[in-house]
Amino acid sequence: MLIALIVAGVIILWFVLTYNSLVALRNRVRNAWHQIDVQLKRRHDLIPNLVNTVKGYMKYEQETLEKIIQARARAVSAKEMKEKAKAEGELSGLLTRLFALFENYPELKANENVLKLQEELTTTENQIAFARQFYNDIVMRYNTKIQSFPSNIIAGMFGFKPEEFFEIPEEEKEAPEVDLSL
């Protein structure tokens, strides 16, 4: 009788600990996603300032600036993870192209406001990359836990579903081509 109670107690304890660890991991995944959103919001807020600051100097690059504004709008309005990743990848590529185009405009390279905005955007891009990496690490831990035996039994019983990784679409992984000739 005592052995049966001990075994039942161990099983109940394992059940509770496993369930709680799944909940904790799921909450860490959600928190990591919100950290990406915070950094993306910061980038979205900086882009109009940058575009407004440089558009007077870059008369021949209005199409690029317009594409950046459109890409920002798509990124802001994206809801699904894949849609957001695609829009953010496109926006990153266009920003990289814009920074490369600055080389054609010595007055932009010397403008203190442009340099400050460029530095802030570069810092934000780095923070976004770190946030994405952290998110994907947590998703990997969570997905591994819900797919591994015996925790997969509890995960299945309580409807824990795998989370998607934040992936940049293949076409967005390539470095953008920049034509620096005028």
- CATH structural fold name: de novo design (two linked rop proteins)
Which second-level CATH architecture applies? Up-down Bundle
Q: Based on helices, strands and strand pairing, what is the structural class?
A: mainly alpha
Radius of gyration: 23 Å
Highest CATH level, the class: Mainly Alpha
Number of helices: 7
Q: How many β-strand runs?
A: 0
- The overall average pLDDT, rounded, is 87
Q: What is the 3D shape?
A: rod-shaped
Q: Oligomer, anyone?
A: single chain
Total separate domains: 1
Low-confidence stretches: 178-182
Describe it for me?
There is one protein chain. The protein starts with a helix and ends in a 9-residue tail after the last helix. Helix 1 (2-54) packs antiparallel against helix 5 (112-147). The chain has 182 residues and is mainly alpha-helical. It has seven helices and no strands. The protein has one domain: LemA-like domain (de novo design (two linked rop proteins), Up-down Bundle). The model is unreliable at 178-182 (pLDDT under 50).
In short:
By secondary structure, this protein is an all-alpha fold. The chain has helices at 2-54, 62-77, 81-101, 106-110, 112-147, 151-157, 170-173.
List keywords for this structure.
de novo design (two linked rop proteins), 182 residues, 7 helices, single chain, mainly alpha, disordered C terminus, rod-shaped
